[in-house]
Amino acid sequence: MWFGIGLFVFLALLIVGMAGNIRYFIDPFGFVMVLLPSVMFGMAIATPGGFLRAMALPFRRTAELAEAAQAMVVWGVFGQLCMAMGILGFLVGAVLLLQNASQPSELGPALGVAALTMFYGALLQLISLAARRLLQRISEG
Question: What is the pTM of this model?
Fold first, then answer.
């Protein structure tokens, strides 16, 4: 329960920190570029049902030790993959930026792809780190 509340407060503060310009931080393509491969590779290390249970585990109050240990692995891989996909998206944006260097009007969208995919990767990795720490406390007893 506290994980969900903390996550909500974190996202609310993040939105408030954006000073009402949240539309500048929304890029569905960049978010899908980070999230979809991370989820797919995460499902590859566990069954789809096991992956979904592991992702939901930080929001529950209790868990068995083996289940918490498996969820820690899943969350760890998920966080690393999100950051890796964010870096990959940054590189795609950098390539677009360099391809359009002679056209100043095309630089903004390319820089947006680069920055936002890295932002999404880092944000999802922060959430993953918090979830892993919570699961570590659960598994320690």
Answer: 0.82
Amino acid identity for residue 116 in this structure: L
Cα gap 66→25, rounded to integer Å: 38
19: left (phi over 0), alpha (psi -120 to 50) or beta: left
Least confident of 18-32, 45-59, 106-120: 18-32
Mean pLDDT of 34-55: 88
